[in-house]
Amino acid sequence: MGSNILITGAAGYLGGSLVADFLASNSTQFRKENITAAVRSEEQAKTLSKLGINVLQLDLTDEKVVVESLLLSIVIHCASSLDERLALHLITALGKQREVRGEETYFIHTSGLSAFYESTGWPPGETKDTGPVFDLEKQLADSFPIRKTDVAVIEHAKARGVTSFIVIPPTVYGKGTGEWNKLSVVLPVCVQASISNKVVYKFPENIKVSGVHISDLTALYGSIIEKILQKETIPSGPEGYYFALAHDLIWWEVLDHLAAALKARNLVVDSKTQIWPSDEAAAKSLGVPVQFVQLLWNSGENIISENTRRLGWKPAWSKDRFLQNIDDEIEAVLDLGKAKSSLIDSLFESAKG
């Protein structure tokens, strides 16, 4: 079948880990010749080319280039959930391939859990992924950019005859396996700020969030791909929301464990946490726009995820395992420094608007 799976954002934390984990898989579906990686820079392209896979240096904002470059049937989009143009151009390309080759095409979009926080306007109370999630997102699309992108993806895919899926990761942790960037953002930034401040800070509210280890997250994408290639029918389009919620995390509990682990390394002066004096102080220390501080470190959701379980997804990491191995997060930051991620830059760009 040739090279038929494109992963965008392949130099990023998630996209890079998907490439690496697919190549390391025992499945015959994930051979080098079946995977194409899309990256932004020439340096990234050179780095990933060492893996022996097809690499495209691609400007996803240029629809003409995207449509002319892609001769694929499956796209896993990890590049951005804020700029809907990137996803729509890829879907247009898949729609053209479907028309030309007469084969089904598939688009797996990576969204963001912040679209489902009360603090961004999502309705309070329990939300099931088997319920009217799309209808609610459509009603609320104009109030939050990630929701707007989700809706645009689903509607444009339907119009182009492309089968779509929305994967929504929560707080992702663990050292990635990609060639370019092996660090996520939320926990590493917290670790870096704690080391810099010599103390671990927390917000006054003890928020429950959801977490997933990067290896469990890539396994979920792999499960969707395998179902596609096996021609099995799974929820898609308006019903195709896959919340990658492996387990709960209680922020104060996480930060208490982090403080103890940092103190054991003499990287902070106290094993006890302190309260952030203000959102502005937190934003300055964490290095993000102030309007995104609460979204990244002090918001939670109330989602019941059933679609992932129906796939047979069984995360290997639990809350206890994460807390017992929280020193791994510190070690990764000490080893790698800051994440090579464009997320923070995109947040500052979004803040301007």
From TrEMBL:
Alphabetical list of SUPFAM superfamilies matching this protein? NAD(P)-binding Rossmann-fold domains (SSF51735)
- State the InterPro entries in the record: NAD(P)-bd_dom_sf, NAD(P)-dependent_oxidoreduct, NmrA-like
UniProt-recorded Gene Ontology molecular function terms: aldehyde dehydrogenase (NAD+) activity
A GO cellular-component term linked to this record: cytoplasm
Q: Which residue ranges does UniProt annotate as crossing the membrane? A: none
> Taking every annotated instance into account, which residue ranges of this chain make up the domain NmrA-like?
3-79
Top-rank taxon, per record: Eukaryota
**What is the protein name for this chain?**
NmrA-like domain-containing protein
- Native organism: Cudoniella acicularis
